[in-house]
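Why Glycogen synthase? Reviewers of the renewal asked for a concrete example.
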Amino acid sequence: MKVLFAVWELVPFFQVGGLGDVAKALPKNLHRQGVDVRVILPFYKALKLHRLQKKEIKKFTAIYDGKKQKVTIFQIHFLDENIPVYILKNEKWLDIPSRDTFSFYNLCVYEILKNNYLSWIPEIVHCHDHHTGLIPLLIKHNNLKFKTLLTIHNLNHQGKYSLDVIKRTGLDHSKCRVIQWETKKKQVNFLLEGIIHADLVNAVSPSYAKEILTEEYGCGLDEIIRNEGQKISGILNGIDYDSRDPVHDKNINYHYGVNDSPIQGKHLNKKFLQDKLGFTVSDDIPLIGFIGRFESKQKGLDIMHKMIRRVNLQKFQFVILGQGEIEWEDQFLWLASFYKKNVAYISVFDKKIASQIYAASDFLLVPSRFEPCGLIQMIAMRYGTLPIARETGGLKDSIIDGVDGFLFKKYSSFDLEMVMKKAVAIWKNDKNKINEMIVNAMKKDFTWDKSAREYIKLYNKLCSPSETS
Ligand code: GLC
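Here is what the prediction returned.
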């Protein structure tokens, strides 16, 4: 089975969010399970190759905006794995993200497939999020035989651009169902095009796959997604067990594993971090973490902030790591500057401190309004840190309330506070129960193997003529 994996970010070369992690770990696991998977993405100026050698494999021209554009395909190998990664260089459109970057990148992928510039013919093109939303459309309307799968990592980011970008790719508007409905606004919605034209679509958790059919979570696309309902499914992401491992993580000071003094290991890491943050060093006060993009629409920053302001801070220590919307960075900075002994806010994302928070914290807050999958709760659980999360999307699918974490239903600072206080009360008064939950969380299987098998099932379905022709 040959699969071309089209994505706009890839750890460790360029990352914006969880998608970059998935783009690394999923191909690795597909490859281990026998799939010939190759990754393709733009070669932005910001892409860091970390001294990897790149090899030029082809130069070609694509017509964009009526003009000839020169594109060079370089190939690198994906760290230790033997997975080719193709990076596409074009100084005008691909160096720096602009409104034309994704349409041009999508056009390049189409040209590469049409002309077999890789000297390798995939059966399937696996697209991710709106950045690759035009690929299924280009393939379908030009009658290429490749099958397409679109994975939705986040429905809230849809990639809405002026119709000009479509014209520049040379696509004929009249062929596009949805574009016709949108002509008044003169906007094309890349994600929507992807959903309509892909042969199969999946979301990154079974619950999110159901949620996006509803008005509450559908981000305006629910009716259209419901129409395409028969081709939509959900597959929960995994995490990369090689790099997320408290036994070997180089970023933490005290290593531990589920069979190797996990409670003691966590205590030592907690002491270290409390001291580093200038908090009182004590095991009688719970240390509660948050790690995430500061995106207020999604991540529940408002209810977390309200809750922290309301509770008696003498009783808790909060460590918050995240960057994004300036307004929210300011709010947490302010909070931390007033309550230095009990609230720490770190605004610059750093892998080392993230690992230290996972290892040291007693609990991790994940109060998201919506969460397609969420990786941090899984990483936290692997490090024996119990998530306190909203019962939505992938959080609902990865946490069992009272067994390996705590869930609250309603999106409200009061419900978050109530569940957090309940968790802390158990932590204070019933150490056996908490220790049992920590072990449950650490033992949980979030490896990619199972999810990769599910993706292979979808690939097989795509290739079986009766299913998707
Ligand atoms: C997006 C989603 C997140 C998901 C990640 C990887 O960042 O917001 O929930 O875990 O993609 O699929």
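The mean pLDDT is 95. This is the kind of structural detail the renewal will allow us to pursue systematically.
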